[in-house]
Amino acid sequence: MSLRLRFSLLYTSLLGGVLLLFGGLVYGLVSFILLNQIDYTLKQEAQSIIAILKANSSNQLDMTSVATVEPTQNIMIQFWNTDQQLVLAQPSFWQKALDSDGLNSGVPVFNSVGSMGDVFLRVLSVPVVTARGPVGVLQVGINMGLVVAVQRSLAVVLTLLTLAAMVITGVVIWLVTGRALAPISTLTRVATEITRADDLSRRIPTSSISNDEVGRLVVAFNDTLERLETLFTTQSRFMADVSHELRTPLTVIKGNLSLMRMMKEVDEESLTSINEEVDRLTRLVGDLLMLA
């Protein structure tokens, strides 16, 4: 896996994690606000209904007061007496308890319950008590369908925004890292070409490189190439000079030996010349060993 791809995946994943966390917080906050608003509405509705309802001398619900109850639109109400018999229901077709657990709670309680089909209700159960004792339980409920729809829509929108942001960020990071790492790719290519072609005169162009870590790396690499080129040039020149210095005495020695072979006699002058050239070779070899 290339460095460019790793950078893109890393930063895209980090952004995705941050956006998911942020989206979760937004979703939770919106749900909390909506639920609190619904609970407040149910509480206000329950208080207004309790203020209307009356109890008769038997501490039972006075049915004449029931006729004056007019719930707010989309609000469902039920009143259950102490024998858990339904006394009041609006709408009238809903004869099942809005929240069966709330009938036995003994204290005001909010519950989210699932009812018929896909209907979800938020129900407030409030025990109604007079000075003579408990009268029954008032249940006030509201359909949560709108809230559920808002939550689902919000989840879809947040998910799509997160995916879109990750894709856009991934593309941008891919392009930016490609531009930032281009000098390194050039450096690698030039180094490979130098290795294959033995051409130390090549340099990486620095005109389009910014003054950052990558730019300084390229400059340092070019400086290294320049020093290597100088060293290899000096070495080649030195080897050429050494070859010349070695070739001269060897040529003299070979010439004198050939002359003596042709004359078939030992020439004192040739022997002296050979001896001098041998001494010269000895000194030259000693100098080379010292340099090594």
Residue fraction in strands: 5-15%
- What is the mean predicted local confidence, pLDDT? 81
Compute the number of structural domains. 2
Please give the order of strands in the largest beta sheet: 2-1-5-4-3
CATH class of the largest domain: Alpha Beta
Task: Explain this structure.
Strand 4 (120-130) and strand 5 (133-143) form a beta hairpin. This protein has helices at residues 3-52, 63-66, 145-197, 213-263, 268-291, and strands at residues 75-81, 86-90, 109-114, 120-130, 133-143. It contains five helices and five strands, in the order H-H-E-E-E-E-E-H-H-H. By secondary structure, the chain is of the alpha+beta class. The protein folds into two domains: 3-151, 2-Layer Sandwich (Beta-Lactamase); 214-291, Helix Hairpins (Orthogonal Bundle).
Q: Mind sketching the topology for me?
A:
Layout: H1 3-52, H2 63-66, E1 75-81, E2 86-90, E3 109-114, E4 120-130, E5 133-143, H3 145-197, H4 213-263, H5 268-291
Antiparallel strand pairs: 1-2, 1-5, 3-4, 4-5
Concise structural overview:
With 292 residues, the chain is α+β, with helices and mostly antiparallel strands. The protein has helices spanning 3-52, 63-66, 145-197, 213-263, 268-291, and strands at residues 75-81, 86-90, 109-114, 120-130, 133-143.
